[in-house]
Amino acid sequence: xxxxxxxxxxxILNNKKLPxxxxxxxYLGMLINENSINERSTMKKSNSIKDISKKVTDGIxxxxxxxxxxxxxxxxxxxxxxxxxxxxxxxxxxxxxxxAQMMLNNYEAxxxxxxxxxxxEGGNVIKGSKSTTIVFWxxxxxxxxxxxxxxxxxxxAKKIQCDCGRKIPYLRSFNVFNICQTxxxxxxxxxxxxxxxxxxxxxxxxxxxxxxxxxxxxxKYGYDNMACPYYSPISDFINIPFGxxxxxxxxxxxxxTTFHEMMHSTGHKSRLxxxxxxxxDGVDAGKLHNRGQYSAEELVAEMGSQILSDACGxxxxxxxxxxxxxxxxxxxxxxxxxxxxxxxxxxxxxVDMILNNxxxxxx
Length: 363
What we know:
Elements: H1 2-14, H2 20-65, H3 77-80, E1 83-84, H4 93-105, E2 111-114, H5 115-120, E3 132-142, H6 154-160, E4 166-178, H7 187-190, H8 203-213, E5 218-221, E6 230-232, E7 237-240, H9 251-265, H10 277-280, E8 288-289, H11 296-311, H12 323-335, H13 339-359
Helix pairs in contact: 1-2, 2-4, 2-12, 8-9, 8-13, 9-11, 11-13
């Protein structure tokens, strides 16, 4: 099609004595051709983002079908943090993708490397190994064409650090291999040695995080013992059943449930502002429950509460590993392929807000 556009241009230039209506028809044909190319280009870019989201979600669903819930801690905390070959910890959706693949394939280590980096380090990927797709958001800067400082020129705007324009996000995907799939795998180097000391659950840290967040959002223990734990976006408070008639399995269960509702509260309009109509997915805005509501927002709370629980070294598994729970998420994710990527990024932001609040002494 591009060659046809060039042909039309050459025809117009080389035939100067053609009737006027022929010129108009040729010019119109050229415009239609170029517009169709631009539309296909835009469609291809859009489909690539959709394809990436589908590929990531399909991977998560395959784990759920095998009874592995990616957003729960299913392995030793020393191994659980997926990291690249340089030791940098993965965040966002990549945390869950790689942790799930490690558990699914019983890899001994949670270190990941690209094919090119493996070659650069003098290693090779074992024949027959399948890569895992991870994703990163990047931004393309578009300067304002009416700007008097840079004149809309990208190079000038970059040089003078002009902030007149806007950043357009786009999604990129990369394929990585677990270090166990390569010749670089070294058990001494990549498998953490078991600690000889007993690692105690950091209940004090959990209580500190909750205490400090109570300065942001009123956490009411025993306010409504007839209801499940919930966060009210309208009144901006958290209800945790407690006291007479309520029995928690242990402190970990209590704290993790509180973390879940704290994560919901980070989405309030005065904080990270997550609660628009699309995000709520039909969930009653009066109460956000920690059970029974399978929405993108619920996935944010599930992921975020697990990250906070891992930080506190919780050992007891509170997440319902039941066929009903897993089946509900499989159904939801099949119908909403963009939820996983959307929720994971916002879960990280919510966790950062809660942790930073405590680092600042609570407010």
